[in-house]
Design brief:
The chain has four helices and three strands. By secondary structure, it is an alpha+beta fold. It has a three-stranded antiparallel β-sheet with strand order 1-2-3.
Length: about 120
């Protein structure tokens, strides 16, 4: 059962479109975030704010997330999650590492990086 779920999740991950293709705002966001968080392990994460669903940045082993000011809101959680997952895939972050980074921001778990 667990292997079936992992295989399904991998197929869904592999099928994710790259949000930066044909979207200048996403491409510019990618460059801005890469500059601001250079040298850190980070992942895009869907977050809910007073404006609705948005993208944020989770930095490994730091509490909470960093809001992305000035970027658009999404109509629902699924759309925000798909965008964030697509951005994580775009930056070469495997699904399990993205999850590890996000979980490490909640305390009690330390993300050790891709080489660990």
């Amino acid at each position: 059962m667990r292997q079936d779920l992992q295989a399904k999740a991998k197929r869904e991950w592999d099928a994710l479109p790259d949000p930066t293709h044909n979207n200048l705002d996403a491409a510019l966001l990618d460059q801005k975030v890469a500059g601001v968080f250079q040298g850190k392990d980070y992942a895009y994460v869907p977050v809910v704010t007073e404006r609705g669903w948005e993208a944020g940045i989770a930095v490994a082993n730091e509490d909470g997330y960093n809001p992305i000011d000035g970027f658009r809101s999404f109509p629902d959680q699924d759309t925000a999650r798909a965008f964030c997952n697509g951005m994580n895939k775009h930056i070469g972050l495997p699904m399990d590492h993205a999850t590890g980074i996000i979980v490490s921001t909640m305390g009690g778990y330390s993300y050790r990086g891709r080489g660990a």
